[in-house]
Amino acid sequence: MSRVQTNAPRGRAVPAQQNPPAVRASLATMERLLRTIEHRTYQRIDAVFDDWVDLLVLLLDHLPLHLADVVRTGHMAAWPEGTTPEQYATFARIQQRYGRFTEVAFQHFSQAAGTFFQATGTDWFDWLGALTMSLGLGGNRHGDYYTPWDVAQMMAQTQNISSLLHKRMLVALRHPENHRAPAVALTGLLFHPRADGQPTEPALDAAARDAFLLEYLIPTVLPFFEPVTVCDPACGSGVMLLAAASTVPHWARQLGMVQFYGMDLSHRAVQMSRAQLRAYGLNGYEARMFVALDEAGGWDAIRERLAQAAPVAPPPPLVAASPGFTVVPRQPQGHLAHPTLAQRAAAQAKPSLVFTQPQPTRNRRGTP
């Protein structure tokens, strides 16, 4: 599980995970910014961290809505159409907490968010889980330990999710109503190694194989494909889900062929998982972003519209979820360049994290 309850003796230090220098630098920057909020606003670090994660989720929820606003109205409002009462309430609660220090808090929240999104754009890692431990919000005192990233990766690799993915694709190709499958399968033989062990023809390089996958194989498979599901019933920061996603081909992640689900008793844990899964574009989120960008005409067209309309919020790539809260969003890449596939993946996107309330009738030992 991603969150582990422990009975380790108090005061015993947990060996620190040796992360690469770039990872340590990003974590140190985020910790410094959140600590600055703690010291300058006189709030507890756990409240500061929870508020920041809630704002990350709010921002990621709003990014596609902001782009839709640009298409519809030509400008980007601080609150896009489609904002829910719960989202308004979340922001109001955070504003009320910081009072006269709101501007200072949001300035540093914004910078920490920018660091987080830049970090998620470089490599796979459990940023929020590691940051939680660095801030002292886990460990012996709280009874929560977040699985180290290298351990999660090792466990994910033993599951061989890619093998199951390809088996499901083969089942879809063999579906009796999949009439295009025989022709596509025959064409696919061109990309297999020759019987004499020699490599494929030079013309059939990686680019050609990618084009075949995107234009023929995946569109043939998807109507009959049953998505592979990965579930963590104690998801914590989402580290096991992220590690599993890192072992899956990028086209399968982008197109929602592998779906990631989790649940947890901790509201903080669920919000951390939500933020990280969306930041990495899982469960159709990257497809939603691509469709929204495609309808808006891309970043260049968005900049032109915002320049002409005198926007009330900073223009892209600085997208605002609220006044003073800006980040550089992750831009969709790769196989989502196919609009039809992207629209299909976006339409099938669904909520993936569940907050499970503890049973109030049970005491701490779990007996009625």
From TrEMBL:
Residues 1-21, 335-368 are annotated as: Disordered. Residues 229-277 form the DNA methylase adenine-specific domain. GO terms for molecular function: DNA binding; N-methyltransferase activity. Coiled coil: none annotated. Pfam families: N6_Mtase (PF02384). This is DNA methylase adenine-specific domain-containing protein. It comes from Candidatus Viridilinea halotolerans.
